[in-house]
Design brief:
The protein is an alpha/beta fold. The protein folds into two domains: 13-111 and 260-286, Leucine Dehydrogenase, chain A, domain 1 (Rossmann fold, 3-Layer(aba) Sandwich); 128-256, 3-Layer(aba) Sandwich (Rossmann fold), CATH 3.40.50. The chain has ten helices and twelve strands. It has helices spanning 27-38, 54-63, 76-82, 88-93, 113-130, 149-160, 173-179, 241-248, 258-273, 279-286; strands at residues 13-19, 42-48, 66-71, 85-86, 98-101, 107-110, 141-145, 165-169, 187-191, 201-206, 224-232, 253-255. The strands form two sheets. The protein has a six-stranded mixed beta sheet, sandwiched between helices. The protein has a six-stranded parallel beta sheet with strand order 9-8-7-10-11-12, with helices on both faces. Strand 7, helix 6 and strand 8 form a beta-alpha-beta unit. Helix 1 (27-38) crosses helix 9 (258-273) and helix 5 packs across helix 9 (258-273). The protein binds 2'-monophosphoadenosine-5'-diphosphate. 2'-monophosphoadenosine-5'-diphosphate is lined by residues 73, 146-150, 170-172, 175, 208-210, 213, 215, 217.
């Protein structure tokens, strides 16, 4: 008998992103552009899931031939817990943004957010920083804003870039303290926002959800060192409140998270299909001038 999860040969393979909210997601457009690069026959949709309905939505999606999912806010922890097998990256983040369903019924979880962020940082920091050789962030000080899922999902990959120092600043300092890992190659500490006054950083990454309320985190002025990069993990049609703050405060390079989204999507595509799409073409198609 035919396994119901295996699609019929003439039907497209089914993928989706699940979240709440999810209607703003660019993931369907990105995956369609990836599929076009390879001539792959893929159906990728956005599915808004009730806050208490994630496990059931995944079950339904699988039973109707779904082969893989991207998972976004607020379901990444639940996706990790639902999986039978997890990659090291998912284990490090204790969260999953990518699920793969195998024909024997296994759910495999992966997390591509950290790789996506680091690839996009490398694109933005460019030749000047990388010409030194060595890890991307060596000798640099990094300020991470927030201590929720977004920051947890990328912390391990950032530490692999061996920054000299990492400060995690959060409204609730105890949550930032939970993320500090002593004894690594980078000096790490937790902070409140106002305690940052008088300090300077080479890379400042906003992983708070303050932007959803149209706000930037309440930061003191003068945080950016000469040549510093300000990066917002959120993205949108207009600059985010954090990007506006960074422009006023003199950051040299300012970016939202669209590049990270494209890069993490490429890693998911590779996890599902075993081939890596060209991300720069897609980023340019989504935002000419990138
Ligand atoms: P996510 O998965 O998007 O990271 P989360 O786990 O709820 O969501 O975390 C949201 C993060 O944004 C937290 O660090 C939160 O700070 P608290 O831990 O103190 O709640 C931060 N955050 C949310 N709204 C904020 C605001 N208006 N100003 C500053 N930080 C904010």
């Amino acid at each position: 008998m035919r396994d119901e999860r295996t699609p019929l040969p003439d039907l497209p393979e089914r993928y989706a992103v699940m979240g709440n909210p999810v209607s703003h997601s660019r993931s369907p457009a990105i995956h369609r552009l990836f599929a076009r690069q390879f001539g792959d026959h893929i159906d990728y949709t956005a599915i808004e899931v009730d806050l208490d309905g994630f496990a059931e939505a995944v079950r339904r999606f699988r039973s109707t031939g779904g082969q893989g999912l991207n998972v976004t806010v607020p379901f990444k922890l639940e996706a990790f817990r639902l999986a039978d097998v997890c990659t090291d990256l998912a284990k490090q983040a204790q969260a999953a943004n990518t699920l793969r369903f195998t024909n024997d019924g296994t759910i495999e979880a992966h997390n591509t957010d950290g790789l996506g962020l680091v690839r996009d940082l490398a694109r933005l920091l460019g030749v000047g920083w990388r010409a030194r050789g060595g890890p991307l962030l060596s000798g640099k000080s990094v300020l991470l804003l927030g201590a929720g899922g977004a920051v947890r999902g990328v912390l391990a990959q950032l530490l692999e870039c061996v920054p000299e120092a990492v400060v995690i600043a959060n409204r609730t300092i105890s949550r930032a303290q939970e993320l500090v890992r002593p004894g690594g190659l980078s000096a790490m500490r937790a902070s409140g926002f106002q305690d940052l006054a008088g300090q300077h950083f080479d890379v400042v990454i906003n992983g708070t959800s303050a932007g959803l309320k149209g706000e930037a985190p309440p930061l003191p002025r003068g945080l950016f060192a000469t040549g510093a990069l300000a990066y917002d993990m959120m993205y949108g049609d207009r600059p985010t409140p954090f990007m506006d703050y960074a422009a006023r405060d003199g950051a040299a390079i300012i970016s939202d998270g669209l590049g990270m989204l494209v890069e993490q999507a490429a890693e998911s595509y590779c996890f599902w299909h075993g081939k890596r799409p060209d991300t720069q073409i897609v980023l340019k198609a989504l935002r000419p001038g990138s």
